[in-house]
Structures are given as C-alpha cells and as structure tokens.
Amino acid sequence: MTVRVVTSMGQGVRPYLDALARLRIRVFRDYPYLYDGDMSYEHRYLEAYSRSRRSVFVLALDGDEVVGCSTGIPLADEVAAIQQPFVERGMLLGEVFYFGESVLLPAYRGQGIGHRFFDLRESHARQQGGFRWTAFCAVERAPHDPRRPGDHRANDPFWTKRGYRRQEDMFCTLDWTEIDAVEPSAHRLRFWLRSLDADLTNYFA
C-alpha cells in the first residue's frame, strides 16, 4: 500500500473534516480511550482547530482515503482545560505548540508514519516561530485494567525516544462517554513535553 503524508493548515483541511471525524471515532474506540464516538462533538472539535490560522493537520492518505491524521495548534488557541496546567507552572501559553492527537488505522502502523506525524508537526511549530515547546497529553489507565488487551503496547518508549519527557505534576481532566456507558465521565490525562530549543534540553533534568 502506498501512503502519502501531506500537511494542511487551518481552513485548508475543511474538505476532510467528515473523514477525520469518522477516523477519530474509529481509532479512539479502542483501548485505552474506549470512546463511544459523537459526530457532533467531533465536528465542533475539528472545526475549532481549523479556525486557528496556525494550526496544522498532517494527513495520511491511501489514494483518496484518510487512514491517519495528526493535529497541532498553538496552546493559546486551545481550551482552558488544556491550558491550565501550563498556567499553573508559570509557562507562557504563546511559547507552547500543542499536539492534539495522532490516529492511524491498524493496518498502516509500523511503517514509520507515526514518526512522520511528529516530524512534520515539530517542523511546523519551528517554522511558525516563537514556540519553545511542543506538548501533548495522553490518557492513563490503571496498570491492571481488565479491559486492557493482551497485546496492548504503551507508547511511552516511542515518545521518550522522540525526546519527550513525562511530566509528573501536569495533568488535565477531560470528559467523554465510554463504550457501554450511559453518560460522560471524567478522565485524567498526563502531559508530555519537549523543548524545541537546544538550550532548554536540561530544563526538566
């Protein structure tokens, strides 16, 4: 299979919004998110990203089919729940470029596309200028969660090799409805940070 990886900024992604919403719902249904998808929410979320002039969408395309997507946005354009841990630490919102997600259909994993997602988002953040950090957050489940598949592998080693540091004191809480649940529940997500400035590499040492 031949996959093209392309980038789009802001409003340029609008022709893909329906496909991206369906893709996010499909991928996030799996562990550890167990998300019971909501197209209305997905459209609101993706449209908010598309309205940011400096956002980026990295798309993986197999022909005309969107098989993967990765997003990024200036933290100053994100919602307050994502911003708050940085405010509490005393970091300037304007210096952080936030990565929303990376979703990729299982058949396309293990081909280096995940690395391309990070490469292109980090490159975009540098080209925009003024950003000193890239960051993202990820949900954490209990180590022995009975819903955890036997073949599930955590992404922590991949993120660490990319230069991201697991933050021991930075969390946010987001609500979504899990599979088989009646209503949304709160989920804790941990932040990971990387410096875009070589002079800051020991900031968290």
What does this structure look like?
The chain is an alpha+beta fold and 205 residues long. It has five helices and seven strands, in the order E-H-H-E-E-H-E-H-E-H-E-E. The protein has helices at 17-28, 39-51, 80-89, 113-128, 156-161, and strands at residues 4-9, 56-62, 65-74, 96-104, 133-139, 165-176, 185-195. The longest helix is centred in the middle third of the chain and has 16 residues, at 113-128. The radius of gyration is 17 Å and the shape is globular. It starts with a strand and ends in a 10-residue tail after the last strand.
Outline the low-pLDDT stretches. Answer: 199-205
Query: Biggest sheet, strands in spatial order?
Result: 1-2-3-4-5-7-6
Strand content: 25-35%
Number of separate strands: 7
Secondary-structure class: alpha+beta
The succession of helices and strands, N to C, reads: EHHEEHEHEHEE
Helix content: 25-40%
Number of helices: 5
Please outline the major beta sheet.
7 strands, mixed
Distance between the termini: 42 Å
Mean pLDDT across all residues, rounded?
93
Shape: globular
Please give the radius of gyration in angstroms: 17 Å
Quick overview:
By secondary structure, this protein is of the alpha+beta class. The protein is 28% helix and 30% strand.
What are the SSEs and their pairings?
Layout: E1 4-9, H1 17-28, H2 39-51, E2 56-62, E3 65-74, H3 80-89, E4 96-104, H4 113-128, E5 133-139, H5 156-161, E6 165-176, E7 185-195
Parallel strand pairs: 4-5
Antiparallel strand pairs: 1-2, 2-3, 3-4, 5-7, 6-7
